[in-house]
Design a protein that fits this description.
Helix content is 44%, strand content 18%. By secondary structure, it is an alpha+beta fold. The protein has 2 domains: 8-177, Sandwich (Jelly Rolls), CATH 2.60.120.280; 185-291, Homeodomain-like (Arc Repressor Mutant, subunit A, Orthogonal Bundle), CATH 1.10.10. Pfam families: AraC_binding, HTH_18. InterPro entries: AraC-bd, Homeodomain-like_sf, HTH-like, HTH_AraC, RmlC-like_jellyroll, Tscrpt_reg_AraC-type_HTH.
């Protein structure tokens, strides 16, 4: 397949023989790889995607950030993120593809799933190394999901929803226990709202004051808050989102550098090139050449 663009897969295209109307797929990872042998190159999903590794090595890349594959590791991806992988040795575990609609018939709060920290859309936050005590719990939940995915008993879909949500909660608890300092809940709400606004408006709004006004806080407070929570200023978070989208667009060889600069609201091609070189370490042309 040409690397001139990033393909986007929906659940139906990766269904492994399941009915096209399904909103969820759960499978053993080795079986998934055997059916979809050519999805190691960069691609996106239109659904939530996660893999739990129980054996294997190699690496997987999420939004151009590379992570080593380790047993006991989960990675979570939200729709639209770009990823690829390279495995060494026998890789085993479990894979889940699930649409947002899968939960909508069950939960009154449409944003409930987005609140889990591993679904922030930040690559490093979506990779979780489970404590040894939690890995068997997650393994057992996946085994129970594999039974329910067959849909042979009444209420199978509802029980499957419960198992998926229980797994999300168990992983969230385990990952937060690793951090000694626990933030008050309202801090996570503000952080999630800021990130959501950035994801919606980063092409047009590049200044922290624009987001602070929408969050009803001062720019100084927003910057201090972001440094406290993430070790970065609000401006850096906005800049990182613009840089990430630039990298995603650069994979499309049919888009000119000037077109990308215009889409990202840069004044001109020269300013965009200087911005990209400063923060990515290479020019847009060099980045494109390296990934081709």
């Amino acid at each position: 397949m040409s690397k001139a663009f990033i393909p986007t897969y929906d659940i139906c295209s990766l269904a492994m023989g399941r009915p096209a109307s399904e909103d969820i797929l759960v499978a053993r990872f080795s079986a998934y790889l055997a059916v979809h042998k050519d999805i190691h190159f960069p691609h996106r999903h239109s659904f939530y995607h996660l893999v739990f590794f129980t054996a294997g090595g190699g690496s997987h890349t999420i939004d151009f950030e590379r992570f080593p594959v380790k047993p006991g590791q989960l990675y979570f991806m939200i729709p639209g993120q770009v990823h690829s992988w390279f495995f060494s040795g026998k890789t085993e575990g479990y894979v889940m593809n699930v649409s947002a609609d899968f939960f909508n018939a069950f939960l009154q709060d449409a944003e409930y799933v987005e609140r889990f920290p591993f679904f922030s859309g930040v690559s490093a936050e979506g990779v979780v190394q489970l404590p040894k005590a939690t890995a068997p719990v997650v393994t057992q939940l996946f085994e129970e999901m594999l039974k329910e995915i067959r849909g042979e008993q009444v209420y199978s879909q509802d029980l499957l929803r419960l198992k998926v949500l229980e797994m999300f909660i168990q992983v969230s608890r385990a990952s937060r226990q690793k951090h000694a300092k626990q933030e008050p809940p309202h801090n996570y709400v503000l952080l999630r709202n800021f990130r959501k606004l950035v994801d919606q408006h980063y092409m047009q709004l590049h200044l922290p004051k624009d987001y602070a006004a929408r969050l009803y806080v001062t720019p100084n407070y927003l910057n201090a808050f972001c440094r406290h929570m993430l070790g970065k200023s609000a401006g850096e978070i906005i800049r990182d989102r613009v840089l990430l989208e630039a990298k995603r667009l650069l994979i499309n060889a049919d888009m000119s550098i000037a077109s990308i600069a215009y889409q990202l609201s840069f004044e001109d091609n020269s300013y965009f090139t200087k911005f990209f070189k400063k923060y990515a370490g290479v020019t847009p042309e060099e980045f494109r050449k390296n990934i081709s």
